[in-house]
């Protein structure tokens, strides 16, 4: 299997709910991605923004980078205003965020997540 240095597979586990796989793409927000990867694994409690997206505060304070405000179902982004990692549960015009990548498998796990659930972000064990 050919591994890419620009696409990094990660695992998003929601404790007691299941595991999602995602792919972080370096060129979308290179500085944000680099900093995020250097702090793995990360763990935090889930918050929900209505039915639009779930997010976890990372504790990182990173700036704006290649921001956009339109996101599609399954996309992953970083919200600089509060240092959160966001997963979109529907197509949405949202706050300006740094795009990071996409959930590639088991997005339904995120849809079942509720406020207070714990999410762990880590490198894919196959990486």
Q: What is the helical fraction, as a range of percent?
A: 10-25%
Number of E strands: 9
Distinct helical segment count: 2
CATH class: Mainly Beta
Q: What class do helices, strands and sheet pairing give? A: mainly beta
N- and C-termini, Cα separation:
11 Å
Which features does this protein show?
127 residues; mainly beta; Cyclophilin; 8-stranded antiparallel beta barrel; 2 helices; 9 strands
Overview of this protein structure:
- With 127 residues, the chain is mainly beta.
- It has one domain (7-123): Beta Barrel (Cyclophilin).
- The protein has 2 helices and 9 strands, in the order ββαββββββαβ.
- Strands 1-2-8-6-7-4-3-9 form an 8-stranded antiparallel beta barrel.
- β3 and β4 form a beta hairpin.
- The protein is globular, with a radius of gyration of 13 Å.
- The model has no long low-confidence stretch (mean pLDDT 92).
Write the layout of secondary structure elements.
Elements: E1 7-14, E2 18-25, H1 30-38, E3 42-49, E4 53-57, E5 68-71, E6 75-79, E7 84-88, E8 92-105, H2 108-112, E9 118-123
Antiparallel strand pairs: 1-2, 1-9, 2-8, 3-4, 3-9, 4-7, 5-8, 6-7, 6-8
